[in-house]
Design a protein that fits this description.
Elements (H helix, E strand, L loop, with lengths): L4 H9 L6 H18 L10 H15 L8 E5 L7 H7 L4 E5 L3 H14 L5 E2 L3 H4 L5 E7 L4 H8 L6 E8 L3 H10 L6 E10 L7 E9 L9
Parallel strand pairs: 1-2, 1-4, 2-3, 4-5
Antiparallel strand pairs: 5-7, 6-7
The structure holds S-adenosylmethionine.
């Protein structure tokens, strides 16, 4: 397999330099996922430019924030973003995917198998998995507001060290809502990455880290 010239051009246009072996795996992921997208509603990002500028950009920002050996859950994986690109970009971390819609979880399982990645897929609500499993980081994009995540994870902080949420410009409003509802009581929230989204100059993506205050969250204080 060789690199699709349109994928290479999109990487170039967005100034992303990726090792060719990794780029080929990312290409295989996008192509396999797009095949499944013809039957299931997995993504609207069906061009190389959208894949690179919307999906890969977020994953490339998230990848360096994880430490070697981490056990990471992608909650609400849908089409596999960010979990699958993350597993490709960072083979030194253990990624699992949670997707509550059975048909999508099944497609994710097939995509993972085709790519030969060591990534378990759970057809379950991510927060329910935390009854039985422990993860150092729960990562997520486009699944719920900050307040909703705080509510989901609230009973399970013994099973999670931190949440890493990929958000767009509305994150400030969401933080306001979460504060208003008291959802952030006993939690810390820090923006640990900010990057241009490219659609217009003012539009920024962020990665928010949320973790428990006090001794339980000592490693991130
Ligand atoms: C809008 S899609 C986002 C998919 C992907 N993360 C992305 O950024 O493109 C949200 C997905 O999360 C799933 N979902 C929503 N709540 C969930 C939960 N509590 N646990 C697991 N999956 C969930 C939905 O079924 C849907 O597939």
């Amino acid at each position: 397999m060789s690199l699709d010239p349109e994928f290479a051009a999109a990487l170039d246009a967005h100034s992303m330099e990726i090792d060719e072996v990794i780029a080929l795996k990312l290409q295989a992921y996008a192509e396999t996922m797009w095949r499944w997208n013809e039957q299931l509603n997995l993504t609207r990002h069906t061009t190389w430019d959208l894949f690179v500028s919307r999906d890969l950009r977020d994953c490339l920002q998230l990848a360096p924030l994880l430490e070697a050996g981490e056990e990471v859950l992608d909650l609400g994986s849908g089409n596999g973003v960010p979990g699958i690109p993350l597993a490709i970009l960072r083979p030194d971390i253990e990624v699992s995917l949670a997707e509550s819609v059975a048909k999508r979880a099944n497609a994710l399982g097939e995509i993972i198998e085709e790519l030969g990645l060591p990534v378990p897929v759970y057809a379950a609500r991510g927060e329910d998995l935390l009854e039985d499993f422990r993860f150092s980081s729960v990562v997520s994009r486009a699944v719920g507001s900050i307040a909703k995540f705080c509510r989901w994870i609230e009973p399970h902080w013994a099973s999670v060290d931190r949440l890493l949420l990929i958000k767009g410009p509305k994150w400030v409003e969401e933080r306001g809502e979460a504060r208003h509802l008291g959802s952030l009581a006993n939690l810390q929230l820090r923006r640990i990455a900010t990057y241009p989204l490219g659609d217009d100059e003012a539009s920024e993506g962020v990665i928010l880290q949320i973790w428990p205050s006090g001794p339980r969250g000592a490693r991130y204080n």
